[in-house]
Specification:
- The protein is mainly β.
- It has two domains: 145 residues, no CATH class; 100 residues, Sandwich (Tumour Suppressor Smad4).
- 13% of the residues lie in helices and 37% in strands.
- The chain has a six-stranded antiparallel beta sheet, with no helix packed on it. A five-stranded mixed beta sheet has the order 3-2-4-5-8, with no helix packed on it.
């Protein structure tokens, strides 16, 4: 009898000490299914050739010639197993030209090239270059930082990745916010993981309540919707320390925006040290625990 009492007492303590993330899913069956399907599609996108799991390098260019290949004498040292001396990137007057050594076969749009002017990721139809299982392209950051982003399309993580631990779906985190427009839009500073500050404009703020306390977020415009980079009291603990991303629709005719935190997600930098993520602006640090969607992923920064 005494033993049974002890077991029951320990079980009660364990039950009471469970965090809110251990609660069961909450919401209508259709909503829970919607979020689970959304997350499954999100995981599949991460594993695609254009996803974030296969990043294998990020190399910033200096003005002039930048030799590259796997030999350590190159300016840009690519992974072992690739050709020792692949060629060079020539950065001159904001234009980057690829030059490939005669003994190496680099493809651009499935065609062998020896010289090619590169289109960066800031424009449509960015140039993608391929050699064996590797692909790379030109990126531009802060207007004048030019870099080469390298992907390994056969990266080991693509075979071992099993998804991202999540909080249980909870429809309470689908919150109605009032959109209060700025006239004119307000300029905000967006810090980045690479130490730069990007300037952007917020068209208005989103005001909402959690447990009868008022909070606000400053989104930026993105395509046909709004984009939010935010941090909260779970950041650096259960969730990624550099915040999470959230997209929403534009305000409706009543200036209402739905913040569905069950669709917030980790930025690329949670998965790779070769990404160049925006960080939350100071306006978007919420002093509340948002126990929704993806938890931290032990990789990258």
């Amino acid at each position: 009898m005494h033993r049974l009492f002890i077991i029951a007492f320990i079980s009660l303590i364990l039950f009471c000490s469970c965090g809110e993330e251990n609660y069961p899913e909450k919401g209508t069956p259709d909503y829970i299914q919607e979020i689970n399907q959304w997350h499954a599609q999100r995981v599949e996108r991460l594993k695609q050739p254009s996803g974030w799991l296969n990043l294998a390098g990020l190399f910033w260019l200096k003005e002039g010639a930048n030799t590259f290949g796997s030999d350590k004498s190159n300016d840009l040292v690519f992974p072992g197993g690739m050709a020792d001396k692949i060629g060079s990137f020539i950065l001159q007057d904001s234009v980057v030209t690829l030059k490939v050594n005669e003994s190496v076969d680099v493809l651009v749009d499935s065609q062998l090239v020896k010289e090619h002017i590169l289109i960066p990721d800031t424009k449509r139809n960015t140039t993608k270059m391929n050699l064996d299982s590797y692909e790379w392209n030109l990126i531009v950051r802060s207007g004048n930082m030019y870099g080469i982003r390298l992907r390994d399309l056969n990266a080991d993580i693509l075979k071992t990745f099993e998804g991202i631990e999540r909080f249980p779906v909870n429809e309470d985190w689908k919150i109605e916010a009032e959109y209060q427009p700025f006239d004119p839009p307000r300029e905000i500073d967006i810090p980045t993981i690479i130490g730069t500050i990007e300037k952007d404009f917020s068209p208005g703020k989103l005001v909402f309540n959690i447990n009868e306390k008022e909070y606000e977020l400053f989104p930026t415009k993105s395509g046909n919707g709004l984009f939010i980079v935010f941090a909260d009291l779970t950041s650096g603990e259960e969730t990624y320390g550099a915040g999470r991303f959230l997209y929403t629709d534009l305000p409706d005719s009543n200036n209402i925006v739905i913040l569905d935190f069950n669709k917030a997600y980790n930025p690329p930098c949670a998965f790779s040290k070769y990404a160049t993520c925006p960080l939350p602006p100071k306006e978007n640090y919420l002093k509340v625990r948002i126990t929704a969607v993806e938890k931290n992923y032990d990789y990258g920064h």
